[in-house]
Protein backbone atom coordinates (compact mmCIF):
# COMPACT_ATOMS: atom_id res chain seq x y z
CA UNK A 1 0.00 0.00 0.00
CA UNK A 2 2.63 2.47 1.01
CA UNK A 3 4.78 3.12 -2.01
CA UNK A 4 8.23 4.55 -1.55
CA UNK A 5 8.75 8.01 -3.02
CA UNK A 6 10.42 7.85 -6.36
CA UNK A 7 9.47 4.22 -6.86
CA UNK A 8 7.56 5.03 -10.04
CA UNK A 9 8.39 3.40 -13.32
CA UNK A 10 8.14 4.83 -16.79
CA UNK A 11 8.11 1.51 -18.63
CA UNK A 12 6.04 -1.57 -17.88
CA UNK A 13 4.35 -4.49 -19.53
CA UNK A 14 0.81 -5.84 -19.29
CA UNK A 15 -0.07 -9.40 -20.19
CA UNK A 16 -2.85 -9.43 -22.78
CA UNK A 17 -5.28 -12.36 -22.44
CA UNK A 18 -6.04 -14.58 -25.40
CA UNK A 19 -9.17 -14.08 -27.44
CA UNK A 20 -11.19 -17.16 -28.41
CA UNK A 21 -12.94 -15.07 -31.10
CA UNK A 22 -9.94 -13.45 -32.72
CA UNK A 23 -11.46 -10.52 -34.63
CA UNK A 24 -13.96 -9.46 -31.96
CA UNK A 25 -13.45 -7.17 -28.97
CA UNK A 26 -12.95 -8.67 -25.53
CA UNK A 27 -16.44 -7.66 -24.46
CA UNK A 28 -17.93 -9.52 -27.44
CA UNK A 29 -15.89 -12.53 -26.36
CA UNK A 30 -17.22 -12.23 -22.83
CA UNK A 31 -20.76 -11.80 -24.14
CA UNK A 32 -20.50 -14.83 -26.41
CA UNK A 33 -18.88 -17.11 -23.86
CA UNK A 34 -20.47 -16.07 -20.56
CA UNK A 35 -23.45 -13.75 -20.84
CA UNK A 36 -25.26 -15.29 -23.82
CA UNK A 37 -24.67 -18.85 -22.58
CA UNK A 38 -26.44 -17.96 -19.28
CA UNK A 39 -23.28 -18.72 -17.31
CA UNK A 40 -23.10 -15.18 -16.01
CA UNK A 41 -23.60 -15.02 -12.23
CA UNK A 42 -24.07 -11.23 -12.26
CA UNK A 43 -21.21 -10.86 -9.80
CA UNK A 44 -20.21 -7.64 -11.63
CA UNK A 45 -16.48 -8.30 -11.37
CA UNK A 46 -16.26 -7.15 -15.00
CA UNK A 47 -18.20 -3.96 -14.23
CA UNK A 48 -15.86 -3.24 -11.33
CA UNK A 49 -12.74 -3.40 -13.46
CA UNK A 50 -14.09 -2.06 -16.78
CA UNK A 51 -12.78 1.43 -17.57
CA UNK A 52 -15.39 1.79 -20.32
CA UNK A 53 -18.79 1.10 -18.86
CA UNK A 54 -19.96 -2.49 -18.41
CA UNK A 55 -23.17 -2.22 -16.42
CA UNK A 56 -26.45 -4.00 -15.76
CA UNK A 57 -29.28 -3.54 -18.24
CA UNK A 58 -32.47 -5.17 -17.05
CA UNK A 59 -31.38 -8.43 -15.48
CA UNK A 60 -28.31 -8.93 -17.64
CA UNK A 61 -24.77 -7.60 -17.67
CA UNK A 62 -24.38 -5.47 -20.77
CA UNK A 63 -22.26 -2.72 -22.26
CA UNK A 64 -24.30 -0.15 -24.16
CA UNK A 65 -22.37 1.31 -27.14
CA UNK A 66 -19.51 -1.16 -26.74
CA UNK A 67 -18.66 -0.67 -30.43
CA UNK A 68 -17.45 2.84 -29.68
CA UNK A 69 -16.72 2.79 -25.95
CA UNK A 70 -14.98 -0.57 -25.44
CA UNK A 71 -11.24 0.07 -25.05
CA UNK A 72 -10.54 -3.62 -25.82
CA UNK A 73 -8.14 -3.97 -22.88
CA UNK A 74 -9.19 -7.48 -21.88
CA UNK A 75 -9.60 -6.72 -18.19
CA UNK A 76 -13.15 -8.11 -18.17
CA UNK A 77 -12.16 -11.55 -19.44
CA UNK A 78 -9.11 -11.56 -17.17
CA UNK A 79 -11.23 -11.17 -14.05
CA UNK A 80 -14.44 -13.01 -15.02
CA UNK A 81 -14.66 -16.07 -12.72
CA UNK A 82 -16.76 -17.90 -15.32
CA UNK A 83 -14.85 -17.11 -18.52
CA UNK A 84 -12.77 -20.15 -17.69
CA UNK A 85 -15.17 -21.80 -15.26
CA UNK A 86 -13.85 -24.18 -12.66
CA UNK A 87 -16.91 -25.10 -10.56
CA UNK A 88 -16.15 -25.54 -6.89
CA UNK A 89 -18.27 -27.39 -4.36
CA UNK A 90 -18.22 -29.14 -1.01
CA UNK A 91 -17.10 -27.76 2.33
CA UNK A 92 -13.78 -26.53 1.00
CA UNK A 93 -10.63 -26.09 3.08
CA UNK A 94 -11.31 -24.95 6.60
CA UNK A 95 -9.62 -24.57 9.97
CA UNK A 96 -12.78 -25.10 11.97
CA UNK A 97 -16.57 -25.01 11.80
CA UNK A 98 -18.16 -23.24 14.75
CA UNK A 99 -21.57 -21.88 15.66
CA UNK A 100 -21.78 -18.29 16.80
CA UNK A 101 -24.40 -15.82 18.01
CA UNK A 102 -23.60 -12.14 18.21
CA UNK A 103 -24.54 -10.37 21.44
CA UNK A 104 -24.18 -6.92 19.92
CA UNK A 105 -26.20 -7.27 16.72
CA UNK A 106 -29.57 -8.84 16.02
CA UNK A 107 -30.57 -10.66 12.87
CA UNK A 108 -30.59 -14.02 11.12
CA UNK A 109 -27.05 -14.62 9.79
CA UNK A 110 -26.34 -10.97 9.11
CA UNK A 111 -25.63 -10.45 12.80
CA UNK A 112 -22.61 -12.77 12.78
CA UNK A 113 -21.36 -11.29 9.48
CA UNK A 114 -21.70 -7.79 10.90
CA UNK A 115 -19.91 -8.94 14.06
CA UNK A 116 -16.97 -10.25 12.00
CA UNK A 117 -16.58 -7.05 9.97
CA UNK A 118 -17.11 -4.65 12.87
CA UNK A 119 -14.61 -6.56 15.00
CA UNK A 120 -12.13 -6.42 12.13
CA UNK A 121 -12.63 -2.62 12.01
CA UNK A 122 -12.11 -2.43 15.78
CA UNK A 123 -8.96 -4.54 15.54
CA UNK A 124 -7.58 -2.19 12.92
CA UNK A 125 -7.33 -4.95 10.31
CA UNK A 126 -9.59 -2.96 7.95
CA UNK A 127 -10.74 0.65 7.93
CA UNK A 128 -14.01 0.11 6.12
CA UNK A 129 -16.49 -2.66 5.53
CA UNK A 130 -18.88 -2.89 2.63
CA UNK A 131 -22.48 -3.61 3.60
CA UNK A 132 -25.49 -4.08 1.38
CA UNK A 133 -28.35 -1.95 2.60
CA UNK A 134 -31.71 -1.40 0.96
CA UNK A 135 -33.95 1.50 0.05
CA UNK A 136 -37.67 1.66 0.87
CA UNK A 137 -38.50 -0.39 -2.24
CA UNK A 138 -36.12 -3.15 -1.12
CA UNK A 139 -33.60 -2.49 -3.89
CA UNK A 140 -30.04 -2.93 -2.66
CA UNK A 141 -27.64 -0.07 -2.05
CA UNK A 142 -24.02 -0.32 -0.95
CA UNK A 143 -22.75 1.37 2.20
CA UNK A 144 -19.18 1.95 3.34
CA UNK A 145 -19.17 1.39 7.10
CA UNK A 146 -16.22 2.97 8.88
CA UNK A 147 -17.58 3.25 12.41
CA UNK A 148 -19.71 0.67 14.26
CA UNK A 149 -22.17 3.49 15.07
CA UNK A 150 -23.12 3.69 11.40
CA UNK A 151 -24.82 0.31 11.79
CA UNK A 152 -27.67 2.04 13.60
CA UNK A 153 -29.22 2.28 10.11
CA UNK A 154 -31.82 -0.45 10.42
CA UNK A 155 -32.01 -1.14 6.68
CA UNK A 156 -28.40 -2.40 6.72
CA UNK A 157 -29.24 -5.61 8.51
CA UNK A 158 -31.37 -8.44 7.24
CA UNK A 159 -31.20 -10.70 4.26
CA UNK A 160 -32.36 -9.29 0.93
CA UNK A 161 -32.46 -12.23 -1.51
CA UNK A 162 -31.58 -10.04 -4.43
CA UNK A 163 -28.33 -9.06 -6.12
CA UNK A 164 -26.24 -6.19 -4.79
CA UNK A 165 -23.60 -4.26 -6.72
CA UNK A 166 -20.86 -5.19 -4.25
CA UNK A 167 -17.84 -5.32 -6.51
CA UNK A 168 -18.18 -1.92 -8.22
CA UNK A 169 -18.42 -0.49 -4.69
CA UNK A 170 -15.37 -2.54 -3.71
CA UNK A 171 -13.24 -0.90 -6.38
CA UNK A 172 -14.23 2.53 -5.09
CA UNK A 173 -13.44 1.44 -1.52
CA UNK A 174 -10.07 0.02 -2.56
CA UNK A 175 -9.12 3.37 -4.09
CA UNK A 176 -9.98 5.28 -0.90
CA UNK A 177 -8.84 2.87 1.80
CA UNK A 178 -5.77 3.43 3.94
CA UNK A 179 -5.62 0.17 5.89
CA UNK A 180 -7.80 -2.32 4.07
CA UNK A 181 -11.32 -3.25 3.05
CA UNK A 182 -13.63 -5.95 4.35
CA UNK A 183 -16.37 -7.35 2.17
CA UNK A 184 -19.37 -9.67 2.43
CA UNK A 185 -20.75 -11.53 -0.52
CA UNK A 186 -22.35 -14.58 -2.01
CA UNK A 187 -20.02 -17.32 -3.34
CA UNK A 188 -19.98 -15.76 -6.83
CA UNK A 189 -18.88 -12.41 -5.42
CA UNK A 190 -16.19 -14.13 -3.35
CA UNK A 191 -14.92 -15.86 -6.52
CA UNK A 192 -14.88 -12.47 -8.25
CA UNK A 193 -12.83 -10.91 -5.45
CA UNK A 194 -10.37 -13.80 -5.56
CA UNK A 195 -10.01 -13.42 -9.31
CA UNK A 196 -9.37 -9.67 -8.92
CA UNK A 197 -6.80 -10.43 -6.24
CA UNK A 198 -5.14 -13.05 -8.38
CA UNK A 199 -4.77 -10.65 -11.30
CA UNK A 200 -4.12 -7.28 -9.68
CA UNK A 201 -1.87 -6.65 -6.62
CA UNK A 202 -3.82 -3.52 -5.68
CA UNK A 203 -6.73 -5.79 -4.64
CA UNK A 204 -4.38 -8.38 -3.10
CA UNK A 205 -2.90 -5.74 -0.80
CA UNK A 206 -6.02 -3.85 0.11
CA UNK A 207 -8.84 -6.40 0.42
CA UNK A 208 -8.08 -7.86 3.84
CA UNK A 209 -11.19 -9.79 4.82
CA UNK A 210 -13.62 -11.64 2.56
CA UNK A 211 -16.68 -13.07 4.29
CA UNK A 212 -18.77 -15.46 2.23
CA UNK A 213 -22.41 -16.36 2.69
CA UNK A 214 -23.99 -19.80 2.32
CA UNK A 215 -26.06 -19.43 -0.82
CA UNK A 216 -28.43 -21.71 -2.66
CA UNK A 217 -29.70 -19.23 -5.20
CA UNK A 218 -30.45 -15.59 -5.72
CA UNK A 219 -33.18 -13.62 -7.47
CA UNK A 220 -33.19 -10.62 -9.74
CA UNK A 221 -34.81 -7.62 -8.14
CA UNK A 222 -37.54 -7.19 -10.77
CA UNK A 223 -38.47 -10.88 -10.64
CA UNK A 224 -38.62 -11.27 -6.88
CA UNK A 225 -40.57 -8.06 -6.28
CA UNK A 226 -43.13 -9.04 -8.91
CA UNK A 227 -43.34 -12.56 -7.47
CA UNK A 228 -43.75 -11.36 -3.90
CA UNK A 229 -46.40 -8.82 -4.87
CA UNK A 230 -48.36 -11.63 -6.55
CA UNK A 231 -48.12 -13.54 -3.27
CA UNK A 232 -49.60 -10.55 -1.48
CA UNK A 233 -46.54 -8.92 0.06
CA UNK A 234 -46.89 -5.19 0.62
CA UNK A 235 -43.41 -3.65 0.33
CA UNK A 236 -44.30 -0.59 2.36
CA UNK A 237 -45.03 -2.84 5.36
CA UNK A 238 -42.29 -5.44 4.79
CA UNK A 239 -39.91 -5.76 7.74
CA UNK A 240 -37.71 -8.70 6.84
CA UNK A 241 -37.38 -11.75 4.63
CA UNK A 242 -36.03 -15.15 5.65
CA UNK A 243 -35.62 -18.60 4.19
CA UNK A 244 -36.10 -21.16 6.97
CA UNK A 245 -36.30 -24.90 6.26
CA UNK A 246 -37.19 -24.45 2.60
CA UNK A 247 -39.85 -21.82 3.28
CA UNK A 248 -39.64 -18.21 2.16
CA UNK A 249 -41.08 -16.09 4.98
CA UNK A 250 -41.87 -12.43 4.45
CA UNK A 251 -42.57 -10.72 7.77
CA UNK A 252 -44.72 -7.61 7.52
CA UNK A 253 -45.95 -5.27 10.22
CA UNK A 254 -49.36 -6.95 10.01
CA UNK A 255 -48.62 -10.62 9.49
CA UNK A 256 -46.53 -13.08 7.52
CA UNK A 257 -46.61 -14.50 3.99
CA UNK A 258 -45.12 -18.01 3.71
CA UNK A 259 -44.54 -20.20 0.69
CA UNK A 260 -42.14 -22.93 -0.36
CA UNK A 261 -38.92 -21.77 -2.02
CA UNK A 262 -39.48 -24.43 -4.68
CA UNK A 263 -42.40 -22.33 -5.97
CA UNK A 264 -39.94 -19.60 -6.91
CA UNK A 265 -37.84 -22.03 -8.99
CA UNK A 266 -38.79 -20.36 -12.27
CA UNK A 267 -37.41 -16.99 -11.28
CA UNK A 268 -34.03 -18.22 -9.98
CA UNK A 269 -31.33 -16.18 -11.73
CA UNK A 270 -29.88 -18.15 -14.67
CA UNK A 271 -26.33 -17.88 -13.32
CA UNK A 272 -27.36 -19.67 -10.13
CA UNK A 273 -28.48 -22.72 -12.12
CA UNK A 274 -24.85 -23.44 -13.00
CA UNK A 275 -23.39 -22.59 -9.58
CA UNK A 276 -22.24 -25.53 -7.46
CA UNK A 277 -20.68 -23.59 -4.60
CA UNK A 278 -22.90 -23.51 -1.52
CA UNK A 279 -20.42 -22.63 1.24
CA UNK A 280 -18.29 -19.98 -0.51
CA UNK A 281 -15.21 -22.21 -0.44
CA UNK A 282 -12.85 -19.44 -1.52
CA UNK A 283 -13.72 -17.02 1.31
CA UNK A 284 -11.71 -16.24 4.45
CA UNK A 285 -14.74 -17.17 6.54
CA UNK A 286 -18.24 -18.12 5.45
CA UNK A 287 -21.43 -17.74 7.40
CA UNK A 288 -24.88 -19.34 7.13
CA UNK A 289 -27.71 -20.58 9.28
CA UNK A 290 -27.61 -24.25 8.23
CA UNK A 291 -25.71 -26.51 10.61
CA UNK A 292 -26.34 -24.84 13.95
CA UNK A 293 -29.09 -24.37 16.51
CA UNK A 294 -31.80 -21.75 16.22
CA UNK A 295 -30.42 -18.29 16.81
CA UNK A 296 -26.87 -19.38 16.02
CA UNK A 297 -25.03 -19.04 12.71
CA UNK A 298 -22.54 -21.53 11.34
CA UNK A 299 -19.14 -19.97 10.73
CA UNK A 300 -16.58 -21.78 8.59
CA UNK A 301 -13.18 -20.32 9.47
CA UNK A 302 -10.92 -20.93 6.50
CA UNK A 303 -7.98 -18.52 6.71
CA UNK A 304 -5.67 -17.20 9.42
CA UNK A 305 -6.99 -13.61 9.20
CA UNK A 306 -10.54 -14.78 9.92
CA UNK A 307 -9.23 -16.96 12.78
CA UNK A 308 -7.66 -13.85 14.33
CA UNK A 309 -10.99 -11.99 14.13
CA UNK A 310 -12.81 -14.91 15.79
CA UNK A 311 -10.21 -14.99 18.57
CA UNK A 312 -10.66 -11.24 19.07
CA UNK A 313 -14.44 -11.71 19.34
CA UNK A 314 -13.92 -14.52 21.89
CA UNK A 315 -11.48 -12.38 23.87
CA UNK A 316 -13.87 -9.43 24.03
CA UNK A 317 -16.88 -11.65 24.63
CA UNK A 318 -18.90 -10.13 21.83
CA UNK A 319 -20.52 -13.45 20.86
CA UNK A 320 -21.56 -16.84 22.22
CA UNK A 321 -19.96 -19.83 20.55
CA UNK A 322 -21.08 -23.42 20.22
CA UNK A 323 -20.66 -26.56 18.17
CA UNK A 324 -21.63 -26.72 14.51
CA UNK A 325 -22.88 -29.84 12.79
CA UNK A 326 -21.42 -30.01 9.28
CA UNK A 327 -23.51 -33.05 8.37
CA UNK A 328 -26.57 -30.79 8.11
CA UNK A 329 -24.84 -28.99 5.25
CA UNK A 330 -24.52 -32.14 3.16
CA UNK A 331 -28.05 -31.99 1.77
CA UNK A 332 -27.69 -28.48 0.35
CA UNK A 333 -24.14 -29.12 -0.86
CA UNK A 334 -25.47 -32.18 -2.71
CA UNK A 335 -28.43 -30.15 -4.00
CA UNK A 336 -26.06 -27.60 -5.52
CA UNK A 337 -23.59 -30.23 -6.74
CA UNK A 338 -26.36 -31.57 -9.02
CA UNK A 339 -26.31 -28.30 -10.91
CA UNK A 340 -22.99 -29.36 -12.49
CA UNK A 341 -25.16 -31.11 -15.12
CA UNK A 342 -26.49 -27.72 -16.24
CA UNK A 343 -23.03 -26.54 -17.25
CA UNK A 344 -22.84 -27.02 -20.99
CA UNK A 345 -20.34 -25.98 -23.57
CA UNK A 346 -16.83 -26.78 -24.62
CA UNK A 347 -15.18 -26.73 -21.24
CA UNK B 1 -1.53 50.77 38.19
CA UNK B 2 1.59 52.24 36.75
CA UNK B 3 2.11 55.96 36.98
CA UNK B 4 0.92 57.71 33.88
CA UNK B 5 3.40 59.62 31.81
CA UNK B 6 2.38 63.17 31.23
CA UNK B 7 2.93 64.38 27.71
CA UNK B 8 4.42 67.80 27.66
CA UNK B 9 4.01 69.93 24.55
CA UNK B 10 7.01 71.69 23.10
CA UNK B 11 7.65 75.09 24.54
CA UNK B 12 8.44 77.74 21.96
CA UNK B 13 9.82 81.17 22.48
CA UNK B 14 8.33 84.09 20.53
CA UNK B 15 10.72 83.81 17.57
CA UNK B 16 9.99 80.12 17.12
CA UNK B 17 6.23 80.71 17.40
CA UNK B 18 6.31 83.26 14.59
CA UNK B 19 8.45 80.91 12.49
CA UNK B 20 6.13 77.90 12.86
CA UNK B 21 3.01 79.98 12.25
CA UNK B 22 4.45 81.50 9.09
CA UNK B 23 5.40 77.97 7.89
CA UNK B 24 1.83 76.74 8.53
CA UNK B 25 0.27 79.64 6.62
CA UNK B 26 2.76 79.04 3.80
CA UNK B 27 1.79 75.34 3.52
CA UNK B 28 -1.94 76.23 3.57
CA UNK B 29 -1.47 78.75 0.76
CA UNK B 30 0.64 76.28 -1.25
CA UNK B 31 -2.00 73.51 -0.89
CA UNK B 32 -4.80 75.88 -1.94
CA UNK B 33 -2.98 76.68 -5.17
CA UNK B 34 -1.36 73.26 -5.91
CA UNK B 35 -2.95 70.59 -3.71
CA UNK B 36 -1.11 67.40 -2.72
CA UNK B 37 -4.04 65.00 -2.52
CA UNK B 38 -3.58 61.48 -1.24
CA UNK B 39 -6.53 60.21 -3.32
CA UNK B 40 -6.71 59.34 -7.02
CA UNK B 41 -9.21 61.20 -9.22
CA UNK B 42 -10.73 58.06 -10.72
CA UNK B 43 -11.72 57.73 -13.58
CA UNK B 44 -9.71 60.66 -14.87
CA UNK B 45 -6.68 59.14 -13.26
CA UNK B 46 -5.83 55.51 -12.62
CA UNK B 47 -3.56 53.99 -10.11
CA UNK B 48 -0.69 52.21 -11.81
CA UNK B 49 -0.87 48.59 -10.75
CA UNK B 50 2.14 46.27 -10.57
CA UNK B 51 2.66 43.96 -13.53
CA UNK B 52 1.62 40.87 -11.57
CA UNK B 53 -1.58 42.44 -10.21
CA UNK B 54 -4.36 39.90 -9.64
CA UNK B 55 -7.25 41.19 -11.68
CA UNK B 56 -9.61 39.98 -14.40
CA UNK B 57 -8.55 36.59 -15.82
CA UNK B 58 -7.94 36.04 -19.54
CA UNK B 59 -8.07 32.64 -21.19
CA UNK B 60 -6.35 31.19 -24.24
CA UNK B 61 -8.25 28.10 -25.49
CA UNK B 62 -5.36 26.98 -27.70
CA UNK B 63 -3.15 26.40 -24.68
CA UNK B 64 -5.86 24.76 -22.52
CA UNK B 65 -5.55 20.98 -22.14
CA UNK B 66 -8.83 20.60 -20.17
CA UNK B 67 -7.02 19.25 -17.14
CA UNK B 68 -9.55 20.79 -14.69
CA UNK B 69 -6.72 21.90 -12.39
CA UNK B 70 -8.12 25.45 -12.17
CA UNK B 71 -11.58 24.31 -11.13
CA UNK B 72 -10.18 21.79 -8.62
CA UNK B 73 -7.89 24.32 -6.96
CA UNK B 74 -10.40 27.20 -6.83
CA UNK B 75 -11.08 27.79 -3.10
CA UNK B 76 -14.26 29.79 -3.80
CA UNK B 77 -15.71 27.28 -6.28
CA UNK B 78 -15.95 30.11 -8.80
CA UNK B 79 -14.63 28.10 -11.75
CA UNK B 80 -16.90 25.67 -13.54
CA UNK B 81 -15.82 23.67 -16.56
CA UNK B 82 -18.28 23.86 -19.43
CA UNK B 83 -18.33 21.74 -22.55
CA UNK B 84 -17.42 23.72 -25.66
CA UNK B 85 -18.73 22.88 -29.18
CA UNK B 86 -15.44 21.08 -29.92
CA UNK B 87 -16.23 18.59 -27.07
CA UNK B 88 -13.50 19.97 -24.84
CA UNK B 89 -14.02 21.47 -21.42
CA UNK B 90 -13.07 25.08 -20.81
CA UNK B 91 -13.28 27.15 -17.62
CA UNK B 92 -15.89 29.77 -16.83
CA UNK B 93 -15.50 32.18 -13.93
CA UNK B 94 -18.25 33.47 -11.69
CA UNK B 95 -16.91 36.83 -10.50
CA UNK B 96 -19.62 36.91 -7.86
CA UNK B 97 -17.60 34.21 -6.10
CA UNK B 98 -14.05 34.84 -7.29
CA UNK B 99 -11.73 36.08 -4.55
CA UNK B 100 -8.94 36.94 -7.02
CA UNK B 101 -6.40 34.64 -5.41
CA UNK B 102 -5.23 33.54 -8.87
CA UNK B 103 -4.53 30.00 -7.68
CA UNK B 104 -6.07 29.00 -11.01
CA UNK B 105 -3.39 30.85 -12.92
CA UNK B 106 -0.66 29.38 -10.74
CA UNK B 107 -2.01 25.86 -11.20
CA UNK B 108 -2.62 26.11 -14.95
CA UNK B 109 -0.29 23.53 -16.43
CA UNK B 110 -0.57 24.82 -20.00
CA UNK B 111 -0.28 28.51 -19.21
CA UNK B 112 -3.71 29.14 -20.72
CA UNK B 113 -4.88 31.50 -17.99
CA UNK B 114 -3.36 34.98 -17.75
CA UNK B 115 -3.76 37.77 -15.23
CA UNK B 116 -4.63 41.35 -16.25
CA UNK B 117 -4.59 44.58 -14.27
CA UNK B 118 -8.32 45.15 -14.80
CA UNK B 119 -9.95 45.48 -11.42
CA UNK B 120 -12.94 47.69 -12.21
CA UNK B 121 -15.47 45.71 -14.21
CA UNK B 122 -19.05 46.72 -13.44
CA UNK B 123 -22.07 44.43 -13.65
CA UNK B 124 -25.78 45.19 -13.61
CA UNK B 125 -26.75 42.12 -11.58
CA UNK B 126 -25.36 38.95 -10.06
CA UNK B 127 -26.25 36.77 -13.04
CA UNK B 128 -24.12 38.92 -15.28
CA UNK B 129 -21.09 38.25 -13.08
CA UNK B 130 -20.98 34.73 -14.42
CA UNK B 131 -18.45 35.02 -17.23
CA UNK B 132 -18.60 32.36 -19.93
CA UNK B 133 -15.47 31.18 -21.71
CA UNK B 134 -16.13 33.35 -24.79
CA UNK B 135 -15.98 36.52 -22.72
CA UNK B 136 -12.68 35.49 -21.16
CA UNK B 137 -10.76 35.16 -24.41
CA UNK B 138 -10.50 38.91 -25.09
CA UNK B 139 -10.11 41.91 -22.81
CA UNK B 140 -13.51 43.32 -21.82
CA UNK B 141 -14.58 46.55 -23.46
CA UNK B 142 -13.44 49.44 -21.30
CA UNK B 143 -14.24 53.17 -21.77
CA UNK B 144 -10.97 54.86 -20.93
CA UNK B 145 -11.28 58.37 -19.51
CA UNK B 146 -7.94 58.38 -17.77
CA UNK B 147 -5.33 60.82 -18.95
CA UNK B 148 -2.82 60.23 -16.16
CA UNK B 149 -1.65 57.37 -14.09
CA UNK B 150 -0.65 57.63 -10.48
CA UNK B 151 2.13 55.95 -8.55
CA UNK B 152 2.76 56.11 -4.85
CA UNK B 153 6.27 57.02 -3.81
CA UNK B 154 7.78 57.10 -0.39
CA UNK B 155 10.17 60.02 0.14
CA UNK B 156 11.72 60.80 3.51
CA UNK B 157 9.12 58.69 5.35
CA UNK B 158 6.38 60.60 3.55
CA UNK B 159 3.93 59.19 1.04
CA UNK B 160 3.73 61.12 -2.21
CA UNK B 161 1.66 60.70 -5.31
CA UNK B 162 3.48 60.82 -8.59
CA UNK B 163 1.28 61.63 -11.55
CA UNK B 164 2.43 60.82 -15.05
CA UNK B 165 0.58 61.67 -18.26
CA UNK B 166 -0.40 58.73 -20.43
CA UNK B 167 -2.37 55.49 -20.17
CA UNK B 168 -1.36 52.52 -18.08
CA UNK B 169 -1.31 49.26 -20.00
CA UNK B 170 -3.92 46.94 -18.55
CA UNK B 171 -2.54 43.75 -19.99
CA UNK B 172 1.07 42.80 -19.46
CA UNK B 173 2.15 39.45 -20.83
CA UNK B 174 3.91 38.10 -17.75
CA UNK B 175 5.48 34.68 -18.28
CA UNK B 176 3.49 31.88 -16.58
CA UNK B 177 4.56 31.07 -13.02
CA UNK B 178 7.44 28.67 -12.62
CA UNK B 179 6.15 25.23 -11.69
CA UNK B 180 8.02 22.38 -10.08
CA UNK B 181 8.85 20.04 -12.97
CA UNK B 182 6.76 16.94 -12.47
CA UNK B 183 6.55 13.74 -14.44
CA UNK B 184 3.92 11.00 -14.50
CA UNK B 185 5.10 7.59 -13.26
CA UNK B 186 3.48 4.21 -12.71
CA UNK B 187 3.64 3.14 -9.06
CA UNK B 188 2.06 -0.31 -9.38
CA UNK B 189 2.96 -1.86 -12.72
CA UNK B 190 1.35 -5.21 -12.05
CA UNK B 191 -2.06 -3.63 -11.39
CA UNK B 192 -2.21 -1.97 -14.83
CA UNK B 193 -5.17 -3.31 -16.76
CA UNK B 194 -3.82 -2.06 -20.07
CA UNK B 195 -6.81 0.11 -20.97
CA UNK B 196 -4.55 2.79 -22.51
CA UNK B 197 -6.80 5.62 -21.31
CA UNK B 198 -3.63 7.46 -20.26
CA UNK B 199 -2.29 7.27 -23.81
CA UNK B 200 -5.59 8.57 -25.16
CA UNK B 201 -5.70 11.45 -22.70
CA UNK B 202 -2.08 12.61 -23.09
CA UNK B 203 -1.93 15.91 -24.98
CA UNK B 204 1.83 15.92 -25.46
CA UNK B 205 2.16 12.39 -26.84
CA UNK B 206 4.39 11.32 -23.97
CA UNK B 207 2.65 7.99 -23.35
CA UNK B 208 2.92 5.30 -25.98
CA UNK B 209 1.98 1.66 -26.13
CA UNK B 210 2.97 -1.20 -28.39
CA UNK B 211 1.66 -4.73 -28.51
CA UNK B 212 4.08 -7.53 -29.15
CA UNK B 213 3.60 -11.27 -28.77
CA UNK B 214 0.89 -11.21 -26.13
CA UNK B 215 2.36 -8.37 -24.10
CA UNK B 216 1.34 -4.74 -24.11
CA UNK B 217 4.36 -2.51 -23.56
CA UNK B 218 3.56 0.88 -22.02
CA UNK B 219 6.10 3.71 -22.02
CA UNK B 220 6.10 7.22 -20.56
CA UNK B 221 8.55 9.53 -22.30
CA UNK B 222 9.82 11.59 -19.35
CA UNK B 223 11.23 14.27 -21.67
CA UNK B 224 7.90 14.87 -23.40
CA UNK B 225 5.78 14.65 -20.23
CA UNK B 226 4.69 18.10 -19.07
CA UNK B 227 3.43 16.92 -15.69
CA UNK B 228 -0.11 18.16 -16.31
CA UNK B 229 -1.62 15.23 -14.40
CA UNK B 230 -4.37 14.39 -16.90
CA UNK B 231 -3.37 10.72 -17.05
CA UNK B 232 -3.15 10.56 -13.25
CA UNK B 233 -6.75 11.75 -12.98
CA UNK B 234 -8.06 9.46 -15.69
CA UNK B 235 -6.23 6.23 -14.74
CA UNK B 236 -9.00 3.84 -13.76
CA UNK B 237 -6.78 1.92 -11.34
CA UNK B 238 -5.18 5.10 -9.92
CA UNK B 239 -1.70 3.68 -10.30
CA UNK B 240 -0.15 6.71 -11.99
CA UNK B 241 1.39 9.40 -9.83
CA UNK B 242 3.16 12.69 -10.41
CA UNK B 243 6.72 12.65 -9.18
CA UNK B 244 9.44 15.27 -9.22
CA UNK B 245 11.58 15.16 -12.32
What does this structure look like?
The complex is a heterodimer of chains A (about 350) and B (about 240). With about 350 residues, chain A is of the alpha+beta class. Chain A folds into 2 domains: about 25-80, no CATH class; about 95-220 and about 270-340, Aspartate Aminotransferase, domain 2 (3-Layer(aba) Sandwich), CATH 3.40.640. Chain A has helices at about 25-35, 45-50, 65-70, 75-80, 110-125, 165-175, 185-200, 200-205, 220-230, 305-315, 330-335; strands at about 10-15, 55, 60, 95-100, 130-135, 140-145, 180-185, 205-215, 240-245, 245-250, 255-260, 285-290, 295-300, 320-325. In chain A, the strands form 3 sheets. Chain A has an 8-stranded mixed β-sheet, sandwiched between helices. In chain A, strand 2 (about 55) and strand 3 (about 60) form a beta hairpin. In chain A, about 45% of the residues are buried. Chain B has 2 domains: about 45-165, Alpha-Beta Plaits; about 180-245, Alpha-Beta Plaits, CATH 3.30.70. Chain B is α+β, with helices and mostly antiparallel strands and about 240 residues long. Helix content of chain B is about 20%, strand content about 25%. The radius of gyration of chain B is 29 Å and the shape is elongated. Strand 1 (about 10-15) of chain A pairs antiparallel with strand 11 of chain B.
Secondary structure elements and their pairing?
The complex is a heterodimer of chains A (347) and B (245).
Chain A: E1 11-15, H1 26-35, H2 45-49, E2 55-57, E3 60-62, H3 66-69, H4 75-79, E4 96-102, H5 110-123, E5 128-134, E6 140-145, H6 166-176, E7 181-185, H7 187-199, H8 201-206, E8 207-213, H9 221-230, E9 238-244, E10 247-252, E11 255-260, E12 285-288, E13 297-301, H10 304-316, E14 319-323, H11 330-337
Parallel strand pairs in A: 5-7, 7-8, 8-12
Antiparallel strand pairs in A: 2-3, 4-13, 4-14, 5-6, 9-10, 10-11, 12-13
Helix pairs in contact in A: 5-10
Chain B: H1 14-33, E1 45-47, E2 57-59, H2 69-73, E3 79-83, E4 89-94, H3 103-107, E5 113-115, E6 130-131, H4 133-137, E7 148-155, E8 158-165, E9 182-186, H5 197-201, E10 207-212, E11 215-220, H6 230-234, E12 240-244
Parallel strand pairs in B: 1-7
Antiparallel strand pairs in B: 2-5, 3-4, 4-6, 7-8, 9-12, 10-11
Amino acid sequence: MATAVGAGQSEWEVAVPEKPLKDKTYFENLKAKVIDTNLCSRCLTCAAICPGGITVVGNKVDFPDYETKCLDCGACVRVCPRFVYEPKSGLGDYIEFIAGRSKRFAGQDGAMVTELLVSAIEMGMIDRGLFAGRDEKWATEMFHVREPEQLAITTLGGTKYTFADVLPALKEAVMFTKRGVGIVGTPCIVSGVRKLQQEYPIFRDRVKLVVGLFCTENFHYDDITKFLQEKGVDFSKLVKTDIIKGKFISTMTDGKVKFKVAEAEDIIASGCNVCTDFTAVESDASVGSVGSEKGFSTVAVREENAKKVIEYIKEKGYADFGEADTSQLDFLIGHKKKREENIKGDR
Amino acid sequence: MKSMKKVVGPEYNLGEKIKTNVYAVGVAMQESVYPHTATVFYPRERKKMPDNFRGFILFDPDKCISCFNCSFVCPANAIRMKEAPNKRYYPTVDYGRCIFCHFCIDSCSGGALKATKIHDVAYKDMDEMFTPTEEMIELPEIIREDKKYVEYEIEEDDLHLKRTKGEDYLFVDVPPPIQIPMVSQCIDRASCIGCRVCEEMCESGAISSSAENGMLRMKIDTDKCTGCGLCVKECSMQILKLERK
